[in-house]
Amino acid sequence: MTKCLPILYYGLEACPINKTQQNALIYVLHISFRKICRTKSTDVVKDCMLIMFNCRKTECVTFNRKRKFLTNYASLDNLICYVCQNYANAETAPVSVKS
């Protein structure tokens, strides 16, 4: 799994992902683990993913990869990418909650 997951997640940090695409990634992971564990039980698959393979949730992985990519991109010193850097800064800025 350590070789397969990076291939599955390759390029996700640079592309916007909608909910349907996120669900498709989750589906691929669950089907793969069902075949590895030879089970149809969702609970067994979830335990296998978390406990045996330490496989984090797809939502967390894509969020962390995107944040890391945008943080690195925003720190580039390139005038051509100024607009993209502003987008990256806006995306990685902490969200403020109004009371």
3D architecture notes:
It contains five helices and no strands. 7% of the residues are buried. By secondary structure, the chain is mainly alpha-helical. The mean pLDDT is 76. It has a domain at 4-71.
What structural keywords apply?
5 helices, mainly alpha, 99 residues, elongated, single chain
DSSP strand count: 0
Residue-averaged pLDDT = 76
Q: Unreliable stretches, pLDDT < 50, 5 or more residues?
A: none
Task: Please outline the major beta sheet.
Answer: none
Taken from the alpha-carbon principal axes, the silhouette is elongated
Beta fraction of the residues? under 5%
Q: Please tell me how large the radius of gyration is.
A: 17 Å
Task: Report helical residue fraction.
Answer: 55-70%
- The count of helical stretches stands at 5
Given helix and strand content, the structural type is: mainly alpha
Q: What is the terminal separation in angstroms?
A: 43 Å
H-E string? HHHHH
